[in-house]
């Protein structure tokens, strides 16, 4: 771990313990997030991206989900070992998160101002006097202005149902970064937005990141968004990261067959119109994972070794790794 | 909001007309009050005279027309048994019931809502299942049975509390418990299911991401949302309480409008019965309107649309 790293996840295992079996949704995920960078976490639905994020936040859904193994190092300290009280201190201030659906992320019965002030007050820990109230309100206005909401003074007294989806997501962003966290996890923040609004939001995130220097773990299933947002990208498949490297290298020379197939299946605006490339078959059941490479059953290059043993992580470039037997080490 | 209230008032008037019609004809199906008022050896002339005095001799539709005409002027007739204007009899007894209901409602909410929250927080635990069992009992036990059981235990066997009639604070305990039992159960169950739903919301996740304490997350962010369905049932519960008071007040000899209703039925006191039912309906309708206005206060989505 270099001093540049703010968040490092090592061999994280989060499983769902259900009556009908164990779902290994996150099964040995490792990655490192550096100060001020945007790391994309890409994969199809159900590959464990969101659960990885919630494991890091220690906000696992109720109903049998448990992190059973691994370390989450935030500035070098393993936050999986913290008490719930200590964890609450960290949330919002050192690590924060933007959720996927702006329509449901804000509490419908409290005004935007209430919800924003709550976050600001927590950071300040000042006694809530009349003077501090004015101060907090000023900060709330500034926070809304920072996420480019017009007429923020009037917006404070409005309720979520009076705002558009894009505007709500900006408010969620304002709340998430109000504690000036060093790490922001953005869990598909633009998936629920209109395409035009998506672009605005991505630009906003990029600008905020440049201003504050925070590191962003950007979860998405959209390679187009990855190209726009991220410095590096980690590709996830069936609970594991199969390839990780700088965005350019991943786009120009993907090493893992899954990444290659994934990039090939992104529709392009130029070139001849043909059949869209797809990946045959389905991901393995997370309740009954194969012992070997998890992509082997869908991989055209698979051989016996791939089915028998999970491949080692191979270094294919200076910062580029892939979990595949067929990759030639650099 | 004003238009909404006006529309609700109109609906209320229509509903009242229907209630008045139904209670007028239904009451008369129970028989002739003259049978109860005269001695068994009374002559046919005595019967005819009394029937005429009571205004029960004309065709029933004529009687209905007279009733409607008077009712429009605020006169709901004179009680046959008490020889007192029915409206007056109702308002004489109303304060006694109003002294009872708020305590039952308070008991229901102060016990039921926190229990519901705690049950939701400990879903599936021993505590949750115990609370669920108690709730089923609270709903399933008829109040006449619960009332008599309480009297038997606390008045007859233990001698701790008076068994009936109005009086000091001790007189309130058993009737309030009897009336409030189903409310505790009702509030608990609704709060529990509403909380379970709200606790899974994304905004609760965001509240935790902000780093808020569990107390604030549960009792502020979750409960305020969970109270919306609870409030919806408030109106229903108050209606249930007013009707439930008939049995409870009868069991505890409590001189309120519940017992008055019971007496009106037993003695075939048509004018009184009509008055009591209509006035109670007005009471329930206004409480429901009040709840709807309160609802708009709790849920800004309603307030501002």
Note the overall shape of chain A: globular
Question: What is the terminal-to-terminal distance of chain A?
Answer: 22 Å
- Per the CATH scheme, the topology name of one domain in chain B is MetI-like fold
Provide the helix percentage of chain A.
25-40%
The proportion of residues in beta strands of chain B is under 5%
Compressed to H and E, one letter per element, the order of chain B equals: HHHHHHHHHHHHHH
Give the % helix of chain B: over 70%
CATH class of one domain in chain B: Mainly Alpha
The low-pLDDT segments of chain A are none
Biggest sheet of chain A, strands in spatial order?
6-7-8-3-9-10-12-11
Gyration radius over CA of chain A = 21 Å
Q: What is the CA–CA distance across the termini of chain B? A: 9 Å
CATH homology superfamily name of one domain in chain B? MetI-like
Q: Quick one: how many beta strands of chain B?
A: 0
Largest interface: A-B, 34 and 25 residues
Number of helices of chain B: 14
Mean pLDDT of chain A: 89
């Amino acid at each position: 771990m270099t001093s540049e790293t703010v968040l490092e996840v090592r061999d994280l295992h989060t499983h769902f313990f259900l009556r009908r079996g164990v779902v290994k949704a996150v099964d040995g995920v490792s990655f490192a997030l550096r100060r001020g960078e945007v790391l994309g976490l890409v994969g199809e639905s159900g590959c464990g991206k969101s659960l990885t994020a919630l494991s890091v936040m220690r906000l696992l859904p109720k109903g049998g989900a448990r992190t059973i193994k691994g370390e989450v190092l935030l500035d070098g300290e393993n936050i999986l070992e913290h008490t719930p009280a200590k964890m609450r201190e960290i949330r919002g201030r050192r690590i924060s998160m933007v959720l996927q659906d702006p329509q449901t992320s804000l509490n419908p019965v409290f005004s935007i101002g209430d919800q924003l002030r709550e976050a600001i007050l927590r950071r300040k820990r000042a006694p809530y006097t009349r003077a501090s109230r004015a101060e907090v309100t000023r900060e709330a206005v500034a926070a809304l202005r920072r996420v480019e909401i017009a007429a923020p003074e009037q917006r404070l007294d409005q309720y979520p149902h009076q705002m558009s989806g894009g505007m709500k997501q900006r408010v969620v962003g304002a709340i998430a970064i109000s504690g000036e966290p060093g790490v922001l996890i953005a869990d598909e923040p633009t998936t629920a937005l209109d395409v035009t609004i998506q672009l605005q939001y991505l630009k906003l995130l990029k600008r905020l990141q440049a201003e504050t220097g925070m590191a962003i773990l950007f979860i998405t299933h959209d390679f187009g968004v990855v190209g726009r947002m991220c410095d590096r990208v980690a590709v996830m498949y069936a609970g594991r990261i199969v390839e990780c490297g700088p965005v350019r290298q991943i786009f120009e020379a993907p090493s893992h067959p899954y990444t290659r197939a994934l990039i090939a299946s992104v529709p392009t605006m130029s070139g001849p119109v043909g059949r869209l490339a797809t990946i045959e078959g389905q991901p393995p059941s997370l309740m009954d994972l194969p012992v070997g490479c998890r992509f082997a059953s869908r991989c055209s290059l698979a051989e016996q070794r791939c089915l028998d043993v999970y491949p080692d992580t191979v270094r294919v470039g200076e910062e580029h790794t892939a979990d595949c037997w067929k990759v030639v080490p650099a | 909001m004003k238009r909404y209230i006006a529309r609700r008032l109109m609906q209320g008037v229509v509903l009242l007309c229907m209630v008045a019609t139904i209670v007028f004809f239904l009451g008369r199906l129970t028989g002739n009050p003259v049978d109860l008022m005269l001695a068994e050896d009374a002559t046919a002339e005595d019967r005819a005279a009394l029937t005429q005095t009571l205004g029960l001799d004309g065709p029933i539709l004529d009687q209905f027309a007279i009733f409607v005409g008077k009712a429009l002027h605020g006169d709901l007739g004179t009680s046959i048994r008490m020889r007192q204007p029915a409206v007056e009899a109702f308002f004489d007894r109303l304060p006694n019931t109003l002294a009872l209901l708020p305590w039952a409602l308070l008991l229901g909410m102060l016990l039921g809502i926190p229990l519901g929250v705690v049950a939701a927080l400990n879903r599936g635990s021993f505590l949750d299942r115990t609370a669920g069992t108690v709730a089923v009992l609270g709903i399933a036990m008829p109040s006449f049975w619960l009332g008599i059981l309480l009297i038997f235990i606390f008045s007859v066997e233990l001698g701790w509390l008076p068994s009936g009639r109005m009086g000091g604070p001790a007189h309130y305990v058993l009737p309030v418990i009897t009336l409030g039992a189903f409310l505790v159960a009702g509030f608990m169950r609704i709060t529990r299911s509403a909380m379970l739903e709200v606790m899974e919301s994304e905004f609760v996740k965001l509240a935790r991401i902000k780093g808020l304490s569990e107390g604030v997350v549960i009792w502020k962010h979750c409960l305020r949302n969970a109270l919306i369905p609870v409030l919806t049932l408030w109106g229903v519960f108050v209606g249930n309480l007013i009707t439930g008071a008939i049995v409870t007040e009868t069991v505890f000899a409590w001189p309120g409008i519940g017992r008055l209703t019971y007496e009106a039925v037993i003695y075939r006191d048509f004018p009184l019965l009509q008055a009591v039912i209509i006035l109670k309906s007005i009471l329930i309708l206004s409480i429901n309107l009040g709840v709807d206005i309160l609802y708009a206060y709790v849920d800004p989505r309603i307030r501002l649309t």
